[in-house]
Amino acid sequence: MAGLLCSSGLLAEEPVKNFTGEEVVVSATKTLNSVSDAGGSSVTVITAKEIKDSGQPTVLDVIKSVPGIDIVSNGGLGSSSSIYLRGADTKYTLVLIDGVPVNDPSMMSDEANLSNLMVDNIDRIEILRGPSSMLYGSSAAAGVINIITRKGAQKPSVYAGIEGGSNGTYKFYGGGNGSQGPLDYSVSVSRTKTDGFSAIDERNPVVNPSGKEFEKDGYNNTTVSGNFVLKLNEQVSLETAMRYNDASLDYDGYFTDLSGNVQKSKLFYAHTALKIDYHPLLSTLYYNVSDQERKYIEMIWGNSAYYSHLYELGWQGDYAVSDNNTFSVGLNSRNESMSTTDIYRHSVTSNSIFLQDQWHFGALQLVEGIRFEDNEQFGSKTTWRVAPSLTFGNTILKCSYATGFRAPSLYELYAPNHIGNENLTAETSNGWDAGIEHKFTGNLKAGSTFFRTDYQNRIDWVSSTDFISYPWGGYFGQAPGTTKTWGVENFIEWSPVQTLFLNMNYTYLRTKDASDNALARRPRNKVGLTATWRPTNRLNLTGNVQWLGTRLEKSAPDGKLDSYFLANIAGSYKLNEHVELYGRLDNLFDEYYEEAWSYATPGRSAYAGMKVTL
């Protein structure tokens, strides 16, 4: 445990994945560990190889198959989407890219918008389930999704590619990575464009009783990414990662096919860290920036624009007390601001400190920590976490208990027309999980984890008939009672032969709001199966199937969304060491389904491409 890496420099390479527990992970403790050494944390790591094998173009498409995660999109590529982690609202999940928070302070609930995040130059995706405010503060009340970009390699290389397919979709991309003297570098650029399909579902007979053809909603995306490490000497390095994204989306109105509505989005983030590693202390000083912009051209409601900025300065020290004990201290100051065409600039600053201790006593792993955060709007909040695990031969018992919180968003505080409420206080959560993993043989492993999280003091919309005081029919207030999510996450991994790897997972989820009603769009049952077959060094084939059960949907005529079954296949073939052909077929059986009522999903779709590497 003496070799550590601060979360603000989440950029280490990882080995090829075989079984859960063998991957490298940073998010669970903000230090570099294998999953099996991260105590009782419930964490999933999606490697660069798995991202490539899936053939999927966006981060949202890749994480759909992860147990405990449900994705709901309002249309095709680039459409607004929601992430439900263990059934929690989107606002309770913190999203990081290279350690930079990218939740948007100008969004209504400060949620993250991953609809425009392509998989270009991404090395791995870490998903930490359960309240994580002890390490990450506000917005991590349900968990964390940490996206880590690729670092430079020892052997320099450049690559370029082109792909295209259904719905008038094409993509051009290129990049390079390598090492030149003390500098490691990795850069990429891509351009994606699609004619798309109507976001409003023309196949829904209630929405489109006459069966007419709706106009297509197109999308385009330009992404530039870079990651640089300058080694000043053996102990000191300067790390920088940045990403710029510019996207444009045609979109429809609610329940209405419209032409002329356009959303233009921009994201820029940058992370810089000075790392000083003089054993036994690893010290990291970092600075993060995130700027986001959303502009809407509306045919009915008129144009609007939203701007947000996040600046974060922090330091983390990881001290190896002994070979089996590491103590970490983190200091952080963050300022978030927003401005819109309706709300003048508002900002909020928070300062925090956390302490964490990691112990390894033979078969026992123990991670424990506490955080104090002071927010200039609502005051202070203390959160804590304990996560032990115990190993008996091929069996691991693990559990965790943690508290979390979410600060009111700037929109919830300051929205005009008396919608905002400056008296709002923080939402809170407390959650626990307990699980077992067992390796039956060298090629067969299974596990099961029970979880529960309760959310109190929730910020919600309060309706009002006093239209003089509240012209929009209500305001944001604190909802009484407790919202509960609980369930079981299960997985089986089996490699019957060296060239074949199978992963099956099943999630059983229950949710209840303060009135004992189930939360919308969360399936009670979700099953996934992924098979990867590499018969030769040149050929790789991957198949993925998912089944989601019925989901509550108040807008639907019968109050629910039907269950559905999806099958996707992807493959690649290396003609030689420089040229690779690849393709994928999504929704193989052309299943008709909706993730949100009245919004369309893609039918059977085929894509193919070629990549050249030198």
Write out key terms for the chains shown.
single chain, 614 residues, mainly beta, Maltoporin, Chain A, 22-stranded antiparallel beta barrel, five-stranded mixed beta sheet, 4 helices, 35 strands, globular, disordered N terminus
Structure description:
The protein has 614 residues and is mainly beta. It has a single domain (7-613), classed as Maltoporin, Chain A. Helices cover 3% and strands 57% of the residues. The strands form six sheets. It has a 22-stranded antiparallel barrel. It has a five-stranded mixed beta sheet with strand order 3-8-9-6-7. Strand 29 (525-533) and strand 30 form a beta hairpin. The radius of gyration is 24 Å and the shape is globular. The chain starts with 23 loop residues before the first strand and ends with a strand.
